[in-house]
Specification:
Two copies of one chain form a homodimer.
Chain A (H helix, E strand, L loop, with lengths): L3 E2 L6 H4 L5 E7 L2 E7 L2 E5 L4 E5 L5 H9 L1 E6 L5 H8 L8 H4 L4 E2 L8 E2 L4 E9 L3 H4 L1 E11 L9 E5 L2 E10 L1
Antiparallel strand pairs in A: 1-10, 2-3, 2-6, 4-5, 5-10, 6-9, 7-8, 9-10, 11-12
Chain lengths: ~170, ~170
């Protein structure tokens, strides 16, 4: 998917509507993927984002150690892969290989981008003070790549279990 | 709008998809409203939610003092009122009166519910340690009232400025 560099101070526009994201990370040369529904923009410039990552996950341990991750934003065509990525652990499964997702090298972090997602945000962890109490990593987006689209992307928004809401039309207030 | 008590351990389902919410609060007997786009569920049971509230706002000062708020979830029919509530300050304007919104008494907090919203979550602030650095209030939902609907509610999801994405169809992975 052809992507362009995206202005960092506008990154909040990609996450503010609450899409499910895929967190990619790297540990001992092995890449991993985990879907999460709980993220929050926390500042515009530099763009800060809070990511709530379950503390039993392999991704939690990896990000705590590597202090970096990529936030990849999928669209509705990937829903089955997104769900499948959440039903197994990177401790046992190579999710890129198992679910036919493609790694691309990032520009500023070692964790890979997921090619099939319409947006990739390279992030460095800047604050781990809230991971013990809330599983909340606070990251700074240091590079952003977004596929230009005419229509709003059909993002996924998690309700519960297998249920997702799909992003709808855009309106002006 | 007729509402029922909603199970607290399922409150994450209402906020996880990333809707814009209206924060209602009370100061010196005067109720106020502020729309915010940046919230994050942080736990299921008891339900904890992070709310990023701009520190120059009247709501920030009010919530810091009163340590309670109500998270009200509007649907698309309220988009003009939601936007208008964000363009002025409770320091100058009685927003309930100016925008034709209706107060209802809450059951466990003093801040009022907004009748026109399909869901009302009564909250108490449980952690203010992150308000200085990130404007992030961490609240516990202590009572929840939700209008039963057959179809998924057409929630608003903020992009930027006057631009909102409307919640679309529901799918199963």
């Amino acid at each position: 998917m052809k992507k362009r560099a995206f202005p960092l101070e506008k990154v909040y526009r990609l996450l503010g509507s609450g899409p499910v994201v895929l967190i990619s990370s790297l540990r001992d040369q092995a890449p991993n993927i985990m879907p999460i529904a709980w993220t929050i923009p926390l500042d515009f410039d530099p763009p800060l984002v809070g990511c709530c990552i379950g503390d039993h996950s392999y991704t939690f341990a990896t990000v705590k150690k590597s202090r970096e991750l990529v936030i990849n934003i999928p669209t509705v065509d990937l829903v089955k892969k997104v769900y499948a990525c959440g039903k197994c652990s990177g401790r046992q499964v190579d999710k890129f290989r198992s679910f036919g997702l493609t790694q691309r090298p990032a520009s500023k972090v070692k964790a890979p981008l997921i090619e099939e997602c319409y947006a990739n945000l390279e992030c460095r962890v800047v604050d781990m003070s809230q991971i013990k109490k809330y599983n909340l990593f606070i990251v700074e987006v240091v590079a952003a790549h977004v596929a230009p689209t005419k229509k709003p992307p059909k993002t996924l928004h998690h309700i519960t279990g297998k249920r997702f809401m799909v992003g709808g039309r855009e309106i002006n207030a």
